[in-house]
Amino acid sequence: MADISTKTITCDSGLPAFIAIPADTSRPLPAVVIMHERYGLVQHTLDLAARFAREGFVCIAPDCFFRHPDQDALHAGDDRYDITDDEAAEHLSTAIDVLEAMDEVDNDCIAVKGVCQTGRHPLILASRRKVAAALVWYGAAQDREWETNDLYHEPLADVIAKVDCPVLGMFGEADHMISLTHIRRFRNCLEEKGKSHSVHVFPGAPHGWLNDTMPGRYRRDQAEAAWKVQKDFLLEVLSPAFDRNSIISRFDCVSRKDYDFSKNVRQA
User: Is the dihedral of CA 181, 185, 191, 197 positive or negative?
Assistant: First the structure.
């Protein structure tokens, strides 16, 4: 396994962030901003950042919930931080600014990833500034995402209309929060708005199936298959050979004939 270097920084805005850098930085590298789940910047997200680095991507993981007053309760899942779109975009933009100032990074090849609660925020950022790809993991598809409220000041359809980069969507068939109907609505909106997209549904995968620190919900086979799909997607859309005027339209869904969303349950 390739050696990597890691460091923790505090940005000028006070935003803490973890950075993982590949061993070989002889040329500018693609990069990923990864936004954590609802638990804040916990070990799982640090592990994913390190994995990106081992695969040749500079990765920064900002602690977007650092203003929560009880980090222990947040990390344990006993409390939550209701981040607004504007605050999320501010933190993600700060993280991109950090990457763009690094000699190791190819500024034209920066992707943004969100997971669960933060799944919509790569799309928010991509609607406001240039990014190379938006990676959405089991988020940004529920009914509430399409409406406005105190956290979401713009309906998701309007956000997607302004996105100007390829979008990867990763979902689980057994998710108790996001149904196949939700996923198809998300896919259909990307299609209708003429956005490059590659949306995938993995059979038997519950909500949170990428998180290997939660044995009840982690699904190794689906997680490894999905990680490969994500890597292939990034290699494709971040390649100099990729035609940014082309439109990718992919939907890969595996489900059962007896699929019943009402029977999907939350896993520990």
Answer: negative
Structure tokens, 17: 């962030």
Q: Phi and psi for 165 in degrees, rounded to 5?
A: -160, 160
Contact assessment for residue 34 and residue 63, using Cβ atoms and an 8 Å cutoff: no
Distance of alpha carbon 185 from alpha carbon 142, whole angstroms:
9
Yes or no: is domain 4-263 CATH 3.40.50.1820?
A: yes
Model's pTM, two decimal places? 0.97
pLDDT per residue of the chain (268 residues) written in tens, 0 to 9: 468 999 999 998 999 999 999 999 999 999 999 999 999 999 999 999 999 999 999 999 999 999 999 999 999 999 999 999 999 999 999 999 999 999 999 999 999 999 999 999 999 999 999 999 999 999 999 999 999 999 999 999 999 999 999 999 999 999 999 999 999 999 999 999 999 999 999 999 999 999 999 999 999 999 999 999 999 999 999 999 999 999 999 999 999 999 999 999 999 8
Rounded to the nearest angstrom, the gap between the alpha carbon of residue 81 and the centroid of all alpha carbons in its chain is: 17
Beta strands across the sheet bearing 167-172: 4-10, 16-22, 58-62, 29-34, 105-115, 133-137, 167-172, 197-202, 249-253
In degrees, to the nearest 5, what angle opens at C-alpha 112 toward C-alphas 125 and 255? 105
Using CA atoms, how far apart are residues 61 and 53, in angstroms rounded to an integer? 12
Q: What whole-number distance in Å separates Cα of residue 60 and Cα of residue 137?
A: 17
